[in-house]
């Protein structure tokens, strides 16, 4: 096992182009629950997937805003873990050695950037963007509170007060005062096409695609690694145990929490 890790480490340092694809599992050791697997979270009796869709927002913008307010606060309070750091250091290594590097994440928590990664494609955008449902303008909202009414609504327990917040007290657009929504990609919504195809192109020309902490169940991101495999890339997957493997076509399956395994597998300066 250690020998396989060393072998992977050596191959990575000799490669010409590497894509790292991450999912919720990379942030699990920062205390942020995943959607699937043994580390999955829930919200007041709902699975998070049930609320992460446009239909849920139509039905109850208050409920969805409370969930996203909670996730945003939780991400702000969390710290990048050793997995985020190993990926950021690997990027530095690649830069120095002339290895083409790209990080594509399905996470919306910005922990990669806070660990020092700079070439990050956020496939599902981020918890810190909002979009107006009336005029479509998009704004970045990193450190200011989302709105007064959401303060103190950050309790995920099923008993928490779930009297809906009146719509006029939910986050509103500064320009037209329309209702704002969290601007993450929800289930059933398209990804940015240009971004997706640049990741796909990069993946298909890579020698290695590292799949880290993702159940690889969410399309179209789930197609990136299998497609790259067919184009000749080798796959290395990092997940808790073999039962989580998303494909039997991986050259390296590294079992264990990625905060422990990635620092051993990824070269650094
Ligand atoms: P997922 O919840 O479907 O799967 C998480 C995977 O991570 C599981 O396979 C699990 O076994 C694995 N895992 C858990 N802890 C791990 C660890 N310490 N080391 C290695 N692997 C570990 O997540 P997904 O595949 O990213 O897809 C679900 C969607 O959830 C995405 O659209 C993403 O945007 C969203 N999401 C994001 C966050 C976040 O931003 N942190 C959190 C939850 C969900
Ligand atoms: Zn507006």
From TrEMBL:
Residues the record lists as binding NAD(+): 106-109, 213-215, 239-241, 258
Q: Which cofactor does it need?
A: Zn(2+)
Gene Ontology cellular component annotations, sorted alphabetically: mitochondrion; nucleus
- In this chain, Zn(2+) is annotated as bound at 132, 135, 173, 176
Cellular location of this protein?
Answer: Mitochondrion
Q: What is its EC number?
A: 2.3.1.-
Name the chemical reaction catalysed here.
Answer: N(6)-succinyl-L-lysyl-[protein] + NAD(+) + H2O = 2''-O-succinyl-ADP-D-ribose + nicotinamide + L-lysyl-[protein]; N(6)-malonyl-L-lysyl-[protein] + NAD(+) + H2O = 2''-O-malonyl-ADP-D-ribose + nicotinamide + L-lysyl-[protein]; N(6)-glutaryl-L-lysyl-[protein] + NAD(+) + H2O = 2''-O-glutaryl-ADP-D-ribose + nicotinamide + L-lysyl-[protein]
Describe the family membership recorded for this protein in Swiss-Prot or TrEMBL.
Belongs to the sirtuin family. Class III subfamily.
> What's the name of the protein?
NAD-dependent protein deacylase
């Amino acid at each position: 096992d250690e020998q396989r890790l060393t072998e992977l480490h050596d191959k990575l340092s000799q490669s010409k182009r590497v894509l790292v694809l991450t999912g919720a599992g990379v942030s699990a050791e920062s205390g942020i629950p995943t959607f699937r697997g043994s580390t999955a979270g829930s919200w007041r009796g709902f699975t998070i997937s049930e609320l992460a869709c446009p239909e849920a927002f139509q039905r109850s913008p208050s409920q969805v805003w409370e969930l996203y307010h909670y996730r945003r606060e939780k991400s702000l309070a969390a710290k990048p873990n050793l997995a985020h750091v190993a990926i950021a250091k690997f990027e530095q290594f690649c830069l120095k050695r002339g290895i083409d590097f790209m990080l594509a994440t399905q996470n919306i928590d910005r922990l990669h950037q806070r660990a020092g990664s700079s070439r990050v494609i956020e496939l599902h955008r981020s918890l810190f963007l909002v979009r107006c449902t009336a005029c479509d303008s998009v704004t970045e909202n990193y450190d200011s509170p989302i709105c007064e009414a959401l303060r103190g609504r950050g309790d995920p327990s099923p008993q928490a007060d779930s009297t809906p917040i009146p719509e006029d007290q939910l986050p509103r657009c500064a320009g037209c005062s329309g209702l704002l929504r969290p601007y993450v990609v929800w289930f059933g919504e398209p990804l940015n096409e240009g971004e997706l195809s640049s990741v796909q192109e990069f993946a298909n020309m890579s020698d290695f695609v590292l799949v880290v902490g993702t159940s690889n169940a969410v399309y179209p991101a789930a197609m990136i690694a299998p497609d790259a495999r067919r184009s000749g890339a080798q796959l290395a997957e990092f997940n808790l145990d073999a039962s989580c493997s998303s494909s039997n076509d991986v050259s390296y399956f590294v079992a264990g929490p990625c905060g422990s395994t990635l620092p051993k597998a990824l070269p650094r300066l």
